[in-house]
Amino acid sequence: MQKPATATLASEFAELPATASHGPLRIEYRWMNEAAANAPIAVFLHEGLGSIAMWRDWPQALCERLGMRGLVYSRPGYGLSTPRAHDVKWPVDFMTAQARDILPALLDALDINTQERKRMWVIGHSDGGSIALLYAAQHPDELAGAVAIAPHVFVEDISVQSIAQTRQLYETTDLRSKLGRYHADVDSAFYGWNDIWLNPAFRAWRIVDELVAIRQPLLAVQGHDDNYGTMAQIDAIAERVPHAQLVKLDACGHSPHRDAPDALNDAIAAFIAKQR
Question: Boundaries of each AB hydrolase-1 domain copy (predicted)?
């Protein structure tokens, strides 16, 4: 098993008990600005191939800008968390299960109480952005607000085409070894994500109707040059959540926190400042 090259000395682990939807899980997590005990919490939800290590320094920089504590964690199958067994396929509703079961169980394990959750922001990227939206819809009274960066709310051809191309790169270039820096079991991470997105059954996946339950402040961000999704994604969010604010970034692809970090941080900071 290849270990990530990025230092992980600051990571801790939470043990989640087995439930009807999953077996026992060991979740890698890390706090930022933990000494600021009275500050609101920002929970960061990574992309489909992400992990704590892959976020690099962006969550820390944003938390310092916002004056918040930060919680980052690697979802099951990613980073140093419990890997996905190689014969297990993620179900079509895997993002709903993450919002419904895994994140609340992690918050419980870390003793994050109801009052802290009411002041909490969820900030997600890509698949993590979709999970942030689903969590906001499922827990409208236990959240201060949400930021969804390049989220998916339905499946577009451009997404499937790019994900198929990524699979070819993974199997024919050094992409696998590069991703191995960020995951203890890189095949667990890659094929869990890739297989479900390329599953024909997943073409019918959509969470647009669930979004009408979102009551708290919502910021949705998309880059004009995103090769995994179009502006139709966040436009669909605005149709279902009229109070949502949209930010559309020029010269920005699928990862605004890497492609346009200053513009992204400015947008998030300004939006959250208006809610305080």
Answer: 43-267
